[in-house]
Specification:
The complex is a heterodimer of chains A (about 475) and B (about 280). Chain A is of the alpha+beta class and about 475 residues long. Chain A contains 20 helices and 12 strands. In chain A, helix 19 runs antiparallel to helix 20. Chain B is mostly helical. Chain B is built from 13 helices and 2 strands; from the N terminus they run αββαααααααααααα. A two-stranded antiparallel ribbon of chain B has the order 1-2. In chain B, strand 1 and strand 2 form a beta hairpin. The longest helix of chain B is centred in the first third of the chain and has 32 residues. Classes of the chains: A alpha+beta (about 475), B mainly alpha (about 280). At the A-B interface, helix 4, helix 13 and helix 19 of A face helix 7 and helix 12 of B.
Amino acid sequence: MNARRMRRAVLGLLVSMTPIALGAAAAEAWSYKEAAKPFAGQSITVLDETTPLQETMKALVPEFVKETGIKVDYQLLNHFEVISKGQADMLSGRGAYDAVMLHSPQMGLLLQADVIRPIDDLMANKTLANPDLDLKDLSQPAWDSLARFKGKTYGFLDWNYNVVYWARNDLLGHADEKAAFKKKYGYDLAPAKTLQQMRDIAEFFTRKKGEKLAGETLASDFYGVVLEGIKGGTTFWTLWNAFIKNFGGDIFDAEGKPTVDRPENVAAVKLWAEMWKFAPPGQAEYSLIDVPTVMGNGIAAQTLAWSDFVLGIDQPGKSKYAGKFVYAGSPAHAKSTTRSAETEPSMIVISKHSKRAEPTYLFLQWMVDKTTQKRFFETSKGAGVPIRESTWTAPELKASRFAGLYTAMRETLRYGRAKPKAPKIFEIMDVMSGVVQEIALGRKTAEAGLKEAQEKIVAICAKCTL
Amino acid sequence: MVTLVVVALVPFLYTVYLSLHEMQYARVGAWAGLENYRVLLGSPRFWHSVAISALFVAITVPLEFGLGLAGALILNQGVRLRSIIVPLLFVPTMMAPIVVAILWKIMLAGSWGLVSYNVLERFGILTDTSVLASPALALYALVFIDVWQWTPFVLLALFAGLQSLPVAPYRAAQVDGATALQTFRRLTLPLMAPLMAVIVLLRIIDAFKIFDTIFLLTGGGPGTATESVSLLAYKMVFDFWNLGAATATAVVVWVMFFAFSNVFYQLLKRTLRTS
């Protein structure tokens, strides 16, 4: 009887374990090579943006082609072309591209036009979906805020650019400067954790030619801060996400209606504009390229800058201040409970007009695959912006001379979200970037400028988000 | 003729066709009649951008023409090393607009530009702003850059014209005892007038279309201080995706130039006939 029970128990156990075992076998058996067999020989065309990171990815694409037999025409175009050409291709229905890289602000228009193919069915397709893809490992809140909308998923992360706090460590750590700062402001001089501290540091380090800075006599004026100020560019994106939202404000309410002139926004813009007093005089023409140039030239103490641009400056031979910089996550507000930072998560989406969605999906999946991402960071020698949480612990990053920068990036990325899905967002940004520039130049007050912007934006869209 | 129709007329007629329709994203929608034009012509921003472009033309073209003519007359006097000077003069004109923009960005960028840092700020000329960041100066900086790039073209085109003038009338004038000024007024100007008119017209059309340097150097700012009509049209297409308004802009600008060129041509014809 006992033996029979034992046999039955063993049999029951075996039966109950069969699906698990089969599942495990399936997981083991899954490979890009097998999944791609029905599509071998097919060609897909993918449009991405030219950046050093994407150039690295391009070097890896032949590995996918070799493994799967799917031919990939991985095209890289400059920022403006990738937007105009990719967007035009999708909106016009030509379908020359199977997949197109989208910046998060583009999502609103393209979702409204219904030209992005959701990938939920492909993700659920056991033949196509890599069971080891580990989507929980993708950077958050970047992925959810970018790719998931009204119950559908539209892609994976392609990149995850972000704005970090960047300062001169030789100045912030100088004993005399530290003592003088503490005497004046009553707290220790250190990389700014709050926007208010950033303002104080900006004021403190703004010096005229002939004055002393860290024991040296200045040969030219020195500025406490440098920020992006050009009309267009990412001036208003950073102001919006790194200042306004940290003040508890926003330019839309929960329903997507414009709320540009609310008091929190006015207070945030005032602080931002006040910092211009401590910035180089030409800040209104500064783009995201000028800001790192100014930091590299050593004429400003601190900034908020796109971290990938830092990689090009903090290098021996590129700037005489290389190695003298310190980084931190984008600062918070001293009192507000909300926290926000400027980031630009982007993704490659499958065009609704693509006739090769399955092989394209395999390629997009391969791009974010852990193995590919590992290869990516090996190939780029540790230079890049992780899109996976697990990448932060990669040896290439830990050993990198940019380890401090990576810590700052990770801090920023905790609070960075994709832009709202607003079809007319570029038109709104055009209004906002012009108005805030005029406020910063003293041609308008924050109250009057934002009131004017509110009227203009209401005229563009009464309800701006989808 | 077929090439002309295919290359020039078809795209233009298609633009007119688009401007008369509702444009949903990049797809042609229902017939809109003159609605796109009504909205465009009622937009203060459009007229502001036209004014910016017109002001730009009004300053650059006379400057380029005046300096170009003066240079051409000097070169025509038989300046030494002319064979070296002429190719060198062509360098700015041969540069791609993006190269010109980058070059002048490096020169004029506030606090780190070669000219800004070493000249303007060092000598306390412009300490509270920079050339491209100042709403009052940015447009004039763009004018300066355009003059720098295109004056050599005007100069060399006029110089080529001067070189091809017949010698006999000048010898006759010399025999008659005409002064240099009289020779210039009575001979050179009338003989050169058709070429001058073409050059001026080309420069007006080209200057009105200014886009690249503005796009790269100021983005149309500060505020809207340098937003030309071409930049606005670009934004309408690639930023705002408002193709109806953008095509209407293209047609309106074409109509303006068509009218202007005709008036200009008629005036020129009358002037030449009189002279």
